[in-house]
Amino acid sequence: MATSEWMLPFLRDINDYPVEGVTFRDITPLLGDASAFGRAIDDLVTCVHDEQISRVVGVEARGFILAAPVAYRLRAGFVPVRKPGKLPWAVARE
């Protein structure tokens, strides 16, 4: 999914993080602005609102932040995907 133009001022590129040659896309400015964060969630929901979605999967860590409110808005369940050994209860693996 392409980044919407309106969102660019709320994203910060950090070069050579976590290793040289990698650019980390920092979304904390987006998360810190209630209007921008809400609009981002609205945009994600709009992309799939016509689909029959029962679960939204969020991959740690930023995926949790974005997928949970999308799931709520879609009235769907939220499934956190984590590295092995990070959850204390029984987990599904495939």
What do these coordinates show?
- With 94 residues, the protein is of the alpha+beta class.
- The protein contains three helices and four strands; from the N terminus they run ββααβαβ.
- The chain has a single domain, classed as 3-Layer(aba) Sandwich (Rossmann fold).
- A hairpin with a 7-residue loop joins β1 and β2.
- The longest helix has 15 residues.
- The radius of gyration is 15 Å and the shape is flat.
Question: Helix/strand-derived class?
Answer: alpha+beta
CATH topology: Rossmann fold
Total domain count? 1
Number of extended strands: 4
CATH level 1 name: Alpha Beta
* Beta content: 15-25%
Q: Can you write the helix and strand succession as a string?
A: EEHHEHE
Unreliable parts: none
Number of helices: 3
Q: Averaging pLDDT over every residue, what do you get?
A: 92
Biggest sheet details? 2 strands, antiparallel
Second rung of CATH, namely the architecture: 3-Layer(aba) Sandwich
Strand order of the largest sheet: 1-2
Give me some keywords for this one.
94 residues, 34% helix, Rossmann fold, two-stranded parallel ribbon, 19% strand, alpha+beta
Topology (elements, then pairings):
Layout lengths: L11 E4 L7 E4 L1 H4 L2 H15 L6 E5 L2 H13 L2 E5 L13
Parallel strand pairs: 3-4
Antiparallel strand pairs: 1-2
Q: TL;DR of this structure?
A:
By secondary structure, the protein is of the alpha+beta class. It has helices at residues 28-31, 34-48, 62-74; strands spanning 12-15, 23-26, 55-59, 77-81.
